[in-house]
Design goal:
The chain is an alpha/beta fold. A six-stranded mixed sheet has the order 5-4-3-6-7-8. It has a two-stranded antiparallel sheet with strand order 1-2. Helix 2 crosses helix 3, helix 7 packs antiparallel against helix 8 and helix 10 packs antiparallel against helix 12. The radius of gyration is 22 Å and the shape is elongated. It starts with 18 loop residues before the first strand and ends with a helix.
């Protein structure tokens, strides 16, 4: 994810960085290469040289060459403009969805795919608001705390990927989503007071959804089953599950039934020791009033 910014010289067009292709992401690289070939075919069929096409697009020649050779992931607006310039009737603009998926790191795409298939997701988060609950502003502020620091491009990609995963809330039928947040995650002012107010308001909004349960583990609870770290369980329609437990096998994904059973018991105890969903929403409202 820590991809360095690499702005293309505009050569008469405006500066437009696009996104770098991860050489280790074979699937994403294949998608970008296919999009690039299609753009080149359409450009050549229109009888336009690279320089002329770049001028009409308002971008640099270098960027056009990189996109067509599959070395650069074009932004959605680039595809929209190409569709207009080449009179493609929406065919090029339609590739936006594939490109938007390719711009996200493979591990994020894999996670989003599992979340999109799960019928139940349960999470205990100890350091920050969980990604599925984060506002874009909070996510950006959180990415900007990383050290070594991320480039602006990497931060942008990370935020976009995180927000895109939140379509899980709109699924029909809706999955059962449960979250337990440590109290400190509500009080740590990531991004400052304004960002935190927006984040707390988001929690209150999402917490009203019928298929969502948000609970708070208050600091004065003392010792509890979550003391060994982050925990997550995803369950699927076929009865299978995958989890992550910092107290087991170094936090690596768990699929072994025995390990999953232990994780489910631990997560169930965490929920039992936390405030109830109703008490938790009242607690979040109280913290919001103090922010």
């Amino acid at each position: 994810m820590s991809v360095d910014s690499d702005n293309d010289s505009d050569s008469g067009g405006r500066e437009e960085p696009g996104w770098e292709v991860d050489p280790e992401d074979e699937q994403g690289a294949a998608v970008v290469a296919s999009v690039g070939r299609n753009l080149k075919v359409w450009r050549e069929a229109a009888g336009l040289r690279v320089a002329e096409f770049a001028t009409r697009m308002g971008y640099g020649e270098d960027l056009v060459r990189k996109v067509e050779s599959g070395k650069r992931i074009p932004r959605p607006e680039y595809l929209d403009k190409a569709d207009e310039v080449l009179a493609a009737g929406g065919r090029l603009a339609a590739m936006r969805r594939d490109v938007e998926q390719a711009r996200y790191p493979k591990r994020v795409r894999d996670l989003a795919k599992m979340e999109a298939q799960a019928v139940e997701i349960g999470v205990y988060s100890i350091h920050a608001i969980h990604g599925l609950l984060q506002t874009g502003e909070y996510a950006q502020a959180l990415f900007e705390t990383r050290w070594p620091s991320y480039s602006p491009e990497a931060v942008e990609r990370g935020v976009a990927a995180r927000v895109a995963r939140q379509t899980v809330f709109d699924r029909n039928p809706a999955p059962a989503l449960t979250f337990v947040q440590e109290e400190v995650t509500l009080r740590r002012p990531i991004g400052g007071p304004v960002v935190m107010r927006g984040q707390l308001e988001r929690l209150l909004e999402v917490g009203q959804l019928r298929h969502v349960s948000i609970q708070v583990m208050p600091t004065d609870q003392g010792g509890h089953a979550g003391m060994t770290g982050y925990a997550e369980v995803l369950k699927f329609p076929d009865g299978s599950a995958v989890g992550r437990d910092e107290s087991q096998v170094g936090g690596r994904p768990l699929t072994d039934p025995k390990h999953l059973r232990v994780l489910e018991l631990r997560y169930g105890m965490i929920r039992a020791q936390a405030l109830t969903p109703r008490e938790s929403l009242a607690f979040i409202e109280q913290v919001l009033g103090e922010t």
